Sequence to fold (479 residues):
Amino acid sequence: MNPQHQTHERLLQRLQQTVGPEGVVCGSARMAPYLEERRGRFKPHAAAVVLPAQTTEVAAVVRACAEAGATIVPQAGNTGLCGGAAPQDADRQILLNLERMNRIREVDRSNFTLTAEAGCVLADVQAAAAAAHRLFPLSYAAEDRCHIGGNLATNAGGMNVLRYGNTRELVLGVEVVLSDGHIWNGLTPLRKDNSGYDLKDLFIGSEGTLGIITAAVLKLYPRPRQRSSAIIGLLEIEHAIALLDRLQTAAGETLVACEIMGRVPVEFALRHIQGCREPFATPYPWYLLLELTSSRWTDELPGLLRETLQQAAENRLVAEWRVAEDHSEAEALWRIRKSIPAAQKYEGGSIKHDISVPLSRIAEFIERASAVLIKRLPGTRPCPFGHIGDGNIHFNLSQPLAMDPEVFLAHWDEFNRIVHDIVVDMGGSFAAEHGVGRLKPPEVARYKSVVEIDLMRRLKAALDPTGILNPGVIIPPRE
Fold:
């Protein structure tokens, strides 16, 4: 028998002994659901999928892989958009999926904390907080599928960053399995602890390259008693920035979300997703979607919204506006925004950009990038939408109507370079909330300084000296 095959078989036997026969998935048909990459940019391959049920099992799997010379790709809900959980080696790579680690370990209502394992679905974490009359504010369109471990590993953003911050701001402590199989129990519920380095921040956003997050202590907030949403039609995107300034001044911390949508992505949602309806009788080039919440009954949020928007309309910042009268109407408005990513798939090939720029330069970026790309390939349809309140725009491009999708997608690298050059020239980032994964290490090499890349390599070498954890992710290879 081939020595490599013998090593492979011994590793699989050891993994089965560690996690049980039901915890090791082999064979192309059974592995297929775990080896789907959402954007189709990668074709994942792995020697096996391993499903540990507890932290000690994760640690044992890491040790077994290290001894066998295999590498590990951690995976949570597999909803990532940059290929960070897509294994690339059918002989030596183990896909470590944490879906069986799905327990809410503790809800401390008085301390406003919740401890969840990495395989918990985000919507279940939200529900557990709500059952304790608390709020866990992290929210995405994929919240019924994504897992909290993946949210932490990518430091994802979502709808409510404007008020509550990125995932990093919502974490007090983490439990991590290190590259040598040791377990670091950093599950502190403390908000103040200056007794050493803040190690948790090394692992949040590291996409499983420095350690495998198995659980986290999450911050909770008072559950909102009031919620008020509004949609605004705008003639110019510059008006969105001016209006955001007014809203933040008037509403303060009650302004939770502020989303921009161009007419093109709104039309996609209306055309393809059931239940989406025109917000106004007149179509507008731009739409702003707002949400205010408060835990106080004394705040009169609909009235505050109406007064602020009426004043903005009198100053010609707003063409038309509507405040939702009830929860059902608010959900209908947010359905448009949440439906855009799915709707764009029906329009053929799509080239994605997850960028951020300073708020003051959002309008300039969209106008400049759109003009350059349409000139480069006439008929290209810019599809900008996203979290304008924190400067994060999903600047997606849909193919010209008559073009073959594959022909359009062949422009991916070229269009990425055009967009990212403009973004960085404006002091922005080419990876705002989706991470780097396997998709963007070339962008790291192009745009990050030599000093920054060297620091990342030093951290990787210190915490993962054998390179066992998610090789090929984030850090570009040495030339």
